[in-house]
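tool=predict chain=A
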Amino acid sequence: MRPFAKPGLILPVITLLAACATPTDPAPADATVGRLTAFDPSFHAIVAPDARIERLADGFTWAEGPAWIPDADGDGGHLLFTDVPENKLYRWSEADGLSLFLDPSGYGGPPDDALREPGANGLQPEPAGTVLLADSGSRLVARLDPATKRKVTLATHFEGKRLNSPNDLVRRSDGTVFFTDPPYGLKGLDDSPVKELDFNGVYRLDPDGTVHLLDDGLGFPNGIALSPDERTLYVANSDPERPIWMAYALDAEGAVRDRRVFADASDLVGEDSPGLPDGMAVAADGTLFATGPGGVLVFNPAGKRLGRIETGTAVANCAFGDDGRTLYMTSHDSLARVQVRASGMRIRE
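tool=predict ok
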C-alpha cells in the first residue's frame, strides 16, 4: 500500500523525489538509520537494545512485498521485493547486491489511466520454488516461476466481478491462499469508475481455484499473515480512521469461526509517525512484527504492544530472511534490515 492523500497523514515531498532517483546500494558510511523504541521491557528479549538498523539500498518510489527465497541447498538465498508504482521487481543478496529482476512486475499492457499503481505488490514464496504474487496492476493473484519469469493466473474475479487490486497474500501449508483486495491500485480508489466490487475484501483462494469472501467490512484491508499453528489469520486495516489489525479464528476449511480486533494504533497515528497498518511477519513463537505508524510494531501473541523498530520513514512491509533472525523491511524509498532475537518460520510445506 502507498498512503493516499489525507491532510496531516501524507508522506513528505521526498516521495516525489524518490521517483526520479535510480535505485542503488548505499555507501557503507550511510548504512545505519533509525532507532528502537521499547514500550515494554520484554521488547529487548526480542530485539537487542544495540541492534543496528541498516539501509541496504535506496532510490525506490514505494518499496513493498519482501520475500526471502532460500537457495535450493538451504545455504544462503536472496530477497525479492517490489516497487509498486514503478512496476518493477528487484533482487537483493549479500553477495550480489541489488539488481532488477522483473520489469514489468505487474501490468504489462498498453498505458491505462485507470491504474494508480501498475506493479505487483505482496510476494509469498512456495515450497516448490515458485512465488505467489499479488498483482495489483493486473488486478489478479498469480504464481510466478522465478526460473522462467512466467506467471500463471490463479484468481481474477469474485462472483463474476473483477477484483479491485490484490495487495498482499499468505499461503497455508495445504496450499490455501488468503489475500486482501483494497483499491490502492486504482486511481480514485473507491471512487474509481473501473471498480466493480462495492467493498474491499479479505478472501480465501482454495487449491481448486474457488474464491471465498471472508470479510467485506474493512475499509482498506492490506497486510495479511498466519499464526504459526495456521489457526489465526491476521489482517491489517490501512485506514487512518480505523488503524487496526484484525484476528480471525479459522476452522479446518479456512472459514472464519470468530473475529476480533487484535490491536489498535489510533493513538500512534500522526505526522511524526509516518505509515499505517500494512505488511506483517510472524515469528515461530507467535510474535507479530507489524508495520504501522512510525515503523514496525512488535506485538506478543496476545496483542500487547512491546516496541517499535523505526527506520525514519514509513515501513510498508517486512519479512524474515537469512538464518531466520534477520528482519528485512521495505521502508518507503529504501530497503533496510535489522537482526532480531526472534526466529522466523520456514516456508510452509
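Residues 14-19 form the longest helix (6 residues). Residues 14-339 form a domain with the Neuraminidase fold (CATH 2.120.10.30).
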